[in-house]
Design goal:
- The chain is about 45% helix and about 15% strand.
- The chain is α/β, with parallel strands linked by helices.
- The protein has five domains: about 1-165, Beta-Lactamase (2-Layer Sandwich), CATH 3.30.450.40; about 175-195 and about 320-425, Glucose Oxidase, domain 1 (3-Layer(bba) Sandwich), CATH 3.50.30; about 200-315, PtsI, HPr-binding domain (Enzyme I, Chain A, domain 2, Orthogonal Bundle), CATH 1.10.274; about 465-600, Alpha-Beta Barrel (TIM Barrel), CATH 3.20.20; about 600-753, TIM Barrel (Alpha-Beta Barrel), CATH 3.20.20.60.
- The strands form three sheets. The chain has an eight-stranded mixed sheet with strand order 7-14-13-9-10-11-12-8. It has an eight-stranded parallel β-barrel with strand order 15-16-17-18-19-20-21-22, surrounded by six helices.
- Helix 23 (about 680-690) links the parallel strand 21 and strand 22 (about 695).
- Helix 9 packs antiparallel against helix 10 and helix 17 crosses helix 18.
- The structure holds phosphoenolpyruvate and magnesium ion (MG).
Length: about 750
């Protein structure tokens, strides 16, 4: 049975549209169970009925016509209870509803199972038998298991097949749902990344002219190298040099022997160039795809990306040119930073990605650039989106496809309001970030990936509250040397001196493994991460700390922060290593000074050990992303449980209160550097808590300042006290939305004003 189950699921997944998917289901299930009829009813919320969507055994003409009202009949009963129903004599059941169009009366045996996705009943899968018979337990569990697996495929096929009806008329505001990646709304044209070259569609073919094929291939590789360098240059003004190393990694792959040599070998064995390319790219990508490590798996997509680029040049002499519309919404299965760079920044209006979450690189880039993004739109039929008009709502994580006139008009209004709102927020530039009763809340910047400080004046940024040092490590192919790190840190420290810059020591592991330092673990987030790696590899830590100290000579604005601290022993040992690096450098003749040292509070144990930790360091900073993940036991990158990840949860707020109180005992300043710090809904709560600084991405600064300047600390404390007593995150969210609305600041958390 297991084989049959896999086969059915595979075929359904491969079906091009809903109709074919359902047809496959009913015919394969009927054969597998050996029954007389198999049908699928899909629930239509609008007409409040279960519509016969496919059948094998009943009259074909009834498909699409027979609609059983919700709550009626046996199908209604299955959907209502969301449980299987197995009846030997259906007509004898009190809920039996006789439907003549399908010719059902003659069937007695009935087994129906619900098709459920995310707690929602999508429809009912039914098998019938002419004779009176109860289906066996094996048959029930088979159908039940199958239905559970089909739900995802049905949703996907439905989204793809329904595009036209989904979007045009009467049904109005239907949309695809993802997760908010970056706030804002945009109306634009969907441009699918890489729609030209489809490597998988290349057939095998014998090479007529081996020499010519080899030359064409080499020329295509050279052209891609040129393209990458141009893109690298184009992004140079927007992202710092060390992040630009992403392109170096790609160029390295191209320049590296294996990919090119193997392709040439295949051509020499008789394949034509595109076929040889497909084979070697596939083989290389496969190696990475089979790795458990997320980062290394991502390398497979880099390799396929390169393959498509080479193919594009092989297929045409002219370079790949896309006419980007003035409002381009980049759509892709997994939108990459390189693809983003290809769109001229003045044309880029938004990003929609079928995979990823708000903590993906692309989402971080989007936030830094102030462009709306919707991530993890799992039902996105990417191939059918190109050239369509799209509206994306980055506040709610929605994507409207070819929207109706009324939806468009509504979003035009919202976009206009948002422009006015942004202009108003921008007018706060240069003004102090202080409450109406004069208490200052310095705003700091989170950085590390994007050079997002260009347009912000000194008065707006009190310093760098979090510089994530791992990103430059991630885009290289080996650990960067001490001298390379010195240059990197010096640039940041100098750029902001005399304002403080908090450099965080390497926080790899979890979802941020290094390609050249693979870690294989069952539970990476609970495993070897952050300072745990630093302690196991003091040489990596010492090199980094030495670079930080050397970079700060004569500037003295360096603060060092330790991530993922879970106990005091870690702090004691790491402080000793920092002192050692400092002393050694002095001996070597560098005029280094001891920096302030702080810890991140992002593990629940650190919350409860706050006093012991605070006593040992100069400052603490709460990483609410990880703290939420560990407090609520919700993987921050898993779109399946994304709804449960909410940093406004009262448990998070109560932890913050505990941290602030504990740190006060030793007069240590408390900062917040997780995403919560940049969320205007949380600003009042953080003011009420009395935190000393907030650190966020550039795009959030002015909005947060607006909130700070709109409330008194007294009022903030009152609101905080009420929120702390609440029972769930939704309640807190609604309450804070109300508070912002009352001040006319509703536009800071939803589209429009
Ligand atoms: C956090 O966990 O809140 C944080 C700021 O660190 P990162 O997102 O880099 O893990
Ligand atoms: Mg963290």
């Amino acid at each position: 049975m297991l084989d049959t189950l896999h086969r059915i699921v595979k075929e359904v997944n491969a079906a091009p549209d809903l109709e074919k998917a359902l047809f496959t289901i009913v015919s394969m299930v009927k054969q597998a169970i050996d029954c007389d009829v198999c049908s699928v009813y899909l629930t239509d919320a609008e007409t409040r009925s279960h519509v016969l969507a496919a059948t094998n055994g009943l009259r074909e003409e009834a498909v699409g016509k027979v609609a059983l009202p919700l709550g009626r009949g046996l199908v209604g009963l299955v959907a209502e209870r969301a449980e299987p129903l197995n009846i030997s004599d259906a007509p004898g059941h009190p809920r039996y509803l006789r439907i003549t169009e399908t010719g059902e009366a003659q069937y007695r045996g009935f087994l129906g199972v619900p098709i459920i996705q995310n707690r929602k009943v999508l429809g009912v899968l039914v098998v019938r038998q002419e004779a009176q018979r109860e289906f066996t337990e094996d048959e029930v569990t088979f159908l039940f298991t199958l239905a559970a697996q089909l739900a995802g495929a049905i949703t996907m096929a439905r989204a793809s097949g329904e595009l036209d009806t989904l979007t045009t008329h009467s049904r109005g505001a239907r949309y695809l749902e993802g997760r908010p990646g970056s706030t804002g709304v945009s109306i634009g044209t969907g441009i699918v990344a890489y729609r030209l070259a489809d490597l998988d569609a290349i057939p095998d073919r014998a090479a007529d002219d081996m020499e010519g094929e080899c030359n064409a291939f080499r020329a295509a590789v050279a052209a891609v190298e040129d393209d990458l360098r141009t893109l690298q240059d184009r992004l140079a003004g927007q992202i710092p040099a060390e992040d630009n190393a992403l392109f170096d990694a790609l160029l390295l792959m191209l320049g590296g022997d294996t990919l090119v040599t193997e392709t040439i070998e295949l051509i020499e064995q008789g394949q034509w160039a595109p076929g040889a390319l497909r084979q070697s790219i596939h083989a290389h990508a496969q190696v990475f795809e089979n790795m458990e490590d997320v980062y290394l798996r991502e390398r497979a997509s880099d390799i396929r990306d390169l393959g498509r680029r080479i193919l594009m040049h092989l297929q045409s002499d002219s370079p790949h040119q896309v006419d980007y519309p003035s409002a381009t919404i980049l759509v892709g299965e997994e939108v990459s930073a390189v693809q983003l760079a290809e769109v001229p920044s003045e044309c880029l209006a938004g990003i929609v990605s079928a995979t990823g979450s708000s903590s993906s690189h692309v989402a971080i880039l989007a936030r830094a650039m102030g462009i709306p993004a919707v991530m993890g739109v799992t039902d996105l039929p990417v191939n059918r989106i190109g050239e369509r008009e799209l509206i994306i709502d980055g506040y709610r994580g929605r994507v409207y496809l070819s929207p109706s006139v009324s939806v468009r008009a509504e979003y035009e209004r919202l976009a206009e309001e948002e422009r006015a709102l942004t202009a108003e927020a921008e007018s706060l530039r240069g003004m102090p970030s202080e409450s109406t009763d004069g208490i200052a809340f310095p705003l700091h910047l989170n950085t590390g990936l994007v050079n997002d400080t260009n347009s912000l004046s000194n008065d707006d940024i009190a310093g760098i509250g979090l510089y994530r040092t791992e990103l430059p490590f991630m885009v290289r192919d080996r650990f960067p040397a001490e001298s390379v790190q010195v240059l990197n840190y010096r640039r940041v420290l100098e750029g902001f001196a005399p304002r403080p810059v908090i450099l965080r020591t390497l926080d790899i592991g979890g979802d941020k493994p290094l390609p050249y330092f693979p870690i294989k673990e069952q539970n990476p987030f609970l495993g070897w991460r952050g300072v745990r790696i630093s302690l196991a590899h003091p040489e990596i830590f010492l090199t980094q700390v030495r670079a930080m100290l050397r970079a700060a000579v004569d500037l003295d604005n360096l603060q060092i922060m330790l991530p993922m601290i879970s106990g005091v022993a870690e702090v004691d040992e790491l402080k000793m290593l920092i002192t050692r690096a400092h002393d050694e450098l002095l001996e070597e003749g560098y005029a280094v000074s001891m920096p302030q040292i702080g810890v991140m509070i992002e593990v629940p144990s650190a919350v409860y050990m706050i006093e012991e930790l605070a006593r040992r360091v100069d400052f603490v900073s709460v990483g609410t992303n990880d703290l939420t993940q560990y407090l609520l036991a919700v993987d921050r990158n898993n779109s399946r449980v994304a709804e449960l990840f909410d940093d406004l949860h009262p448990a998070v707020l109560r932890s913050l209160e505990h941290v602030v109180r504990g740190a006060r005992v030793f007069n240590r300043p408390v900062g917040i550097c997780g995403e919560l710090a940049g969320n205007p809904l949380a600003t009042i709560l953080l003011m009420g808590l009395g935190v000393d600084s907030l650190s966020m991405s550039a795009g959030a600064l002015m909005k947060v300042k607006w909130v700070v300047r709109s409330f008194s600390v007294l009022r903030a404390r009152q609101l905080l006290q009420a929120a702390l007593r609440m029972e769930d995150a939704q309640q807190v969210r609604r309450f804070m939305e109300g508070a912002l609305d009352d001040m006319g600041l509703g536009g800071l958390f939803r589209p429009g004003r």
